[in-house]
Amino acid sequence: MIETVIRKRIEILTDTALVRRITKAIDDAGITGWTITPVQSGKGRDGHWREERVTGSDKVFVLTIAPQDKAMALAEALAPSLSSHGFLLTMWDIEVIRGERF
Asked: Which one, 47, 56, 67, 101, has the greatest CB density within 10 A?
């Protein structure tokens, strides 16, 4: 039987302009990797939005997987910027195989 380990999956929806700040916070929290995926459009509390490369307000998802302690360190590091920079951070428990990689 394959053994799994519980980790936190963290997704951050942010403007492309903030990606370096986010990935630096991930690295500083000791999390070993991240993935960035472009986002074309969506709808939130403020209504519909679409990517806008001309004004630089296009959005991306930054995805990472981490143990509980590193995930909480990342959340604490980014919490002050959540409202001021208008990005979204979600996290939930997942099961991974080869947990030592995360």
From this structure: 67
